[in-house]
Structure formats: C-alpha cells, structure tokens
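Might you be able to review the protein record set out just below?
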Amino acid sequence: MLKVSGYTVIDVETTGLFPEMHDRIVEIGVVYLSHDGQIQDHWTTLVNPERDVGPTRIHGITPSDVVGAPTFAELAPYVLRAVSGRIVVAHNADFDLAFIRQEYQRAGWDMPTAPALCTLQASEYHLPGLDRRRLADC
C-alpha cells in the first residue's frame, strides 16, 4: 500500500499543448500541503525549455526570462521530492502530469507513481452551476 504524507499542488506553464512532440515546461510552481490543508512549503521557478518559449501572450514568459533558468533535468530531483509519497493536486492534472512525465523521460529519469486529484474534474461534481471551468472561475 502506498503511504502518502500530504498533498503537493503543482502548476506548469508550457511552450504549447503537446508534451509528446516538442513542447516543454517553462515554469513550475509547487505548494506542499499537510493532510489538513496547511501550507508547509512552496517554490516556483522558471525553466529553460532549451527551445523557444512559445506563446508569451498566454503565459507572459519571454525568452530573456529563461536565459539563466535551470533546465528540467537540473530540477528533476526537486520535482521528485515534490511528488514522491504525496497526493499530487493540479487543475487539469492529466495535462500537467503528462508534461512532467515527458520531461522526466527526456532527462533519463522515471517519474514516480503518485496518486493525483484533478481539481478540474472535481469542479464538475462540486461546482455544477459553473459555465466555465478555468481555475480562476472555480
């Protein structure tokens, strides 16, 4: 049985929509929560995608922003700590986790198995009257 020690909320900004093609993570944010929802720690960083940054108009990240940023391969141990033994929470978790999984693969690592809670999917049940399901709307 997998023992978990709290939640890790993760959000990524990306160069596009297709991790299995050439799109990459350009920013990652992590918040550690206890089982009762207390913030334990947090961090965020830009990520050098080693390519163009994609649609700046969407995520606001410019090429000059990522010049000195670490690559995902350099961040992999920190992301590993963030997801290992914890429940991962993300809005559209399948999207974020697909990117993280692909980045791990590019770096030559295996992403650990982590249970995930998708707040986008949960919003359909808990907030049935919403017209839009963006995180800000939820």
Q: What stands out?
A: The longest strand covers residues 25-33. Residues 120 and 133 are 7 Å apart (CA to CA).
